[in-house]
Design brief:
Two copies of one chain form a homodimer. With 257 residues, chain A is of the alpha+beta class. Chain A has four helices and 14 strands. Chain B binds a DNA duplex (15 and 15 nucleotides) through strand 4, helix 3 and helix 4.
Chain lengths: 257, 257
DNA sequence: GCGATCAGCGGCACG
DNA sequence: CGTGCCGTTGATCGC
C-alpha cells in the first residue's frame, strides 16, 4: 500500500523530470470532452507519459478505457471526499475546437506508484504497409496488366487521394486503389468516388481497379455493378521489403464495352 | 535492477494467477504477422494483461508501439545471445486466417517487474455516441423537418446499415446518416451509397440527409452535386443523456425538382 | 464466424 | 491548422 501523498509526489516528480509514472490502484474515472463517460470503482493501471499522454487500462482488452493524448496537462492532488481521502489525478487538454477536455481519476487506494525514466530514441520500422505495397506495384504495373503505365502516385483529386494513377494500352485512365487486407464496401466506394471524379473532369474513358488480397462478396457485387475491376494481390511481409508473392487477375475489364 | 530470472518468475506468476504484469527496461522488439516490424534498443514499458493482451509502450504517444490483442499466448524465457543473457518475452496469436502472429521483446536490462491483481467488474458508460444521437433524433424527427416520420432504425441494406430510415410528408423515402463529428467525404460517400441502393430497390423517390455538427467544404460540395442534403446538428454531451442543443437546417431539399 | 461500421478513434502526410 | 486516409487499426453489433 502506498500513501496518497507519496503517490502525488511520484506524479509530480515524473512530470517535472520527464519521467513516466505508473500507478496501480482502485479508482473511479470521469471524462468529459468530445463525449462524456463514467467508470465506477475498480482496480486499474494509470500510465502518465512525459509528453502528457494519459492512459487508464483495465485488466482486459487492448484499448485504454479512458485516455488523453500528448499535450495533456496532468496534475495530482490529495482531496477529501465524503470524509475520506482520495488521490485525484487530472488530465486537461484543449481541443482543436477550443473546447476543454478533462479526465479525472479518483483513486481510493493504491497498490503501487513509481516513476521511470524511459530513454528511447528508436523508431519503429514497419514492413508491409499499404504505402510499401503501392510502391512495389508502381515499379511493375505489368503485374496487374500488360501495357499498364504509371502516370502518378498519390495524386490528390478534389474527392480524395488516388493511390496510383495509370494509363492502359488504349490510353484509358486507370485508377488503382490498393488495400493491404480484405477490401470491403468502403474500399469500393472510395474507388468509385475517384473514378467518378476523374471521368467527369478529364474527358476520357476511365477504369478503376481495386487491388487487394481479398474482397468481400458484397464489395465484389458492387464493383461489378459499377463496372469496376478486382485484382487479387498476394504478398509476403518480410524484411527488408514486402514481397509480392503471387498475382492473379480475377476479373478483366468488366467495363469493356 | 531486477534479475532476468526474477522477472521471468513475475511473468509466469502473473500468467498463472490471472494478474497483470508490468515490466520496465531496455529492450528491442520484433514483430511478424499481419505486417512485420523491428524496433531497436530503448527503454519501454511492457504490459501483459490477464487476457493475453500485450502492450509495448514508448515514452511518448498514446498508441502502443507494438502490441497483441486478447487471446495471445505469452511466455518468458532467459536466453543467451552474443554471450550475454537476456529476457525474452513472447506473445503468440493465431490470426483469423489461420496464420501466426508473434511479438518478441528482448530485454537487455530491467528497471522493474511486478505483477498486480486488477479486480474490476465495472463497465464504461459513454454519453454522446452516434447511436445515442441517432436514438434521440429518432424520438423527434420533426427537429430535422416537419412531417418527417420514422420508418425503421438501423435498417440493413445489402450495402451496409442505414442509421435512420424515414418518410417525408410527400411519402418519399429519406435516408438519414448521423455523424457525431465533422462529416467528411467518407460520410457523404456512405450516404450516397445507401440512397443509391434504396432508390434502385424500392421504386420510389429517395432523399438523403447528412446530419452532423459540421461538414467539410469538399464534402458539402459533393453533397450538393449528388442532390443530397445537410442538416447541422448541435448537441451537448452530458450525463445522463446527450442533449440536442440547437438545430439548424442548412440546406433544404436540394433535390427538390 | 464474417461483414460492416463506429471510435472521445490515433497517427501521418500534404495542402 | 484542416482534410483525407491508413492502421498489425480495435471494438461492437448484427447476420
Amino acid at each position: 500500500m502506498i500513501s496518497f501523498s507519496e503517490a502525488k509526489q511520484v506524479v509530480d516528480h515524473a512530470l517535472s523530470a520527464g519521467k513516466t509514472a505508473l500507478l496501480v490502484g482502485n479508482c473511479a474515472v470521469k471524462y468529459e470532452g468530445r463525449a462524456a463517460s463514467k467508470l465506477s470503482e475498480g482496480d486499474r493501471l494509470l500510465v502518465v507519459k512525459s509528453d502528457g499522454t494519459f492512459l487508464v487500462h483495465q485488466s482486459k482488452k487492448m484499448a485504454a478505457i479512458n485516455y488523453q493524448g500528448p499535450g495533456a496537462v496532468v496534475s495530482a492532488a490529495v482531496e477529501q471526499r465524503d470524509g475520506a481521502e482520495e488521490l485525484v489525478v487530472t488530465a486537461r487538454r484543449k481541443l482543436p475546437t477550443g473546447a476543454l477536455e478533462r479526465i479525472e481519476v479518483h483513486f481510493h487506494s493504491l497498490q503501487f506508484a513509481q516513476a521511470f525514466l524511459l530513454k528511447d530514441d528508436a523508431e519503429l520500422k514497419v514492413f508491409g504497409s499499404e504505402r510499401q505495397l503501392s510502391d512495389l506495384l508502381m515499379d511493375d504495373l505489368n503485374l496487374i496488366e500488360p501495357g499498364l503505365r504509371p502516370l502518378q502516385k498519390e495524386s490528390d483529386v478534389r474527392k480524395g487521394t488516388i493511390d496510383i494513377l495509370a494509363e492502359d494500352f488504349r490510353k484509358r485512365l486507370v485508377v488503382i486503389e490498393v488495400k493491404r487486407r480484405t477490401a470491403g464496401l468502403d474500399a469500393v466506394t472510395q474507388l468509385a468516388r475517384y473514378v467518378d471524379e476523374l471521368s467527369k473532369r478529364k474527358d476520357r474513358q476511365t477504369r478503376g481497379i481495386l487491388v487487394a488480397p481479398e474482397v468481400t462478396p458484397n464489395a465484389l457485387k458492387m464493383l461489378e455493378r459499377g463496372g469496376l475491376e478486382f485484382f487479387k494481390l498476394d504478398y509476403e511481409v518480410s524484411n527488408p521489403s514486402a514481397k509480392i508473392k503471387g498475382l492473379e487477375k480475377k476479373q478483366r475489364e468488366l467495363s469493356e464495352f
